[in-house]
Amino acid sequence: MNYIKSVKSSFELYVDNLAQGKLGKYIELYDDSINENHYDFDIAVFTVSQNDNSYEFEAVRKEFYNLYVGNWDIKIVDLGVFVIGSTTEDTNYALKEQISSLIKNNVIPVVIGDDHGLTFSMYKAYDSLEQMVNLTAVDYKFDLGVLGEKLSSDSFLGHILSESPSNLFNYSSLGFQTYLNSQEEIDMLDKLSFDAYRLGVAKDMKLTESILRDSDIVSIDLSSVRMSDSSGNNKSNVNGFYAEEICAIARYSGISDKVSSFGVFDYNKDKDIHNQTAQLLSQMIWYFIDGVNSRALDYPYCGYEEYAKYSVVIDDIDTIEFMESNKTGRWWMKINKDVGNKKKRHALVPCTEEDYIEALKGNVPDRWIKALNKFK
Questions:
Q1: Which of 80, 81, 124, 374 is the 20 to 30 A CA-CA neighbour of 305?
Q2: Per the domain annotation, does 299 fall within a domain?
Q3: Measured between alpha carbons, how far is 28 from 77 in angstroms, rounded to an integer?
Q4: Which helix (H) or strand (E) holds 374?
């Protein structure tokens, strides 16, 4: 763990004084004694600040350790503080290597940070994994920036889209607010057949679950939560998700069999009155872990025989095949398209039962069209 500084000495006394059953008693605090076995965990939590190597997210950790453990059967480690480099480029490279190493060893990294631009490093971590990536960002805006702008929390998506070659198969935006995004940006994402859902639409958790189910990376900006529920972020937005909704999004992210990295960003301790946002952030991580523990492992871990199959014929297009998991009741649409090396991984597109019902009425699901366009 060349890029990690343990927080064990800072929090050991606090943890010792916690009651039995608290998370601080359950998780491992990383130090050199477990260096040889640092991949012997299911989830690895660590924090990173773009500006301060000594910043330990003290309030967040104390709130997190003080929660009670769920009925879990997974191993969790708090790696500590990610040590930033002398330049932004050094930090991005090292963070990419750290996350990639964990994913390769089947450990889910949970990154807590003060800058949403760190999502770029999460995305780059998949370069060496030789796979196409689905990224979901929960945010009130798209963070496209302007051409040539330095990488930041306001421009990371623009940097991802300008990468060549690109590993990005799909980008989904959950909770964007139209009046805070230009029409040109909205039109561009639609032209690229990406999924962008306004705040009111994304509050439909059935829809949101289906988006998260197909994600590899989930990155949440705390500014997507309304200011009255989360004051401790950099952008303080009057509208947004409620606290219970963002916790549901975190849990659905964990339940997704495909999510292999998870991040929550934009925490600002100086604005966090009464540790309100520290409490919320710690509960979001708790819900994510609870979701991981509840994974059903249906698609892509079981064969097609584990699904009920329905075919809907709609005029002027091919038959749309719907599949319903016998295990969980979750729905997918099958894309019957010769897509070369991508076919096995993206053959099924998550959807809802409502998509099936709409197809029966003769309405082609928008997500089916967008998925088909990506395979052309």
A1: 374
A2: no
A3: 5
A4: helix 366-374
Which of 272, 293, 314 lies at the terminal end of a domain, its last residue? 293
**Which of helix, strand or coil describes residue 162?**
coil
Distance between CA atoms of 1 and 34, rounded to whole angstroms?
10
**Residue 300 preceded by cis peptide, ω within 30:** yes
pLDDT digits (tens, 9 = 90+) for 29-86: 998 766 656 688 999 999 999 888 889 999 999 999 999 999 999 999 999 999 988 8
Regions of the chain short of the pLDDT cut 70: 1-2, 33-38, 300-301, 316-317, 337-347, 376
Place of tokens 């309405």: 363
Alpha-carbon gap, residue 376 to 367, rounded angstroms: 15
The total number of structural domains in the chain stands at 2
Alpha carbon distance 312, 326 (integer Å): 19
Sign of the Cα torsion 158, 159, 165, 169 reads negative
User: In which domain, by residue range, is 118 found?
Assistant: 4-293
Query: What is the rounded CA–CA span in Å between residue 12 and residue 309?
Result: 53
Residue that is last in its domain, among 268, 293, 318: 293
Let me know whether 265 and 308 are in one domain.
no
Q: How many other β-carbons are positioned within 10 Å of the β-carbon of residue 302?
A: 14
Mean pLDDT of the chain: 90
Q: Would you call 127 helix, strand, or coil by DSSP?
A: helix
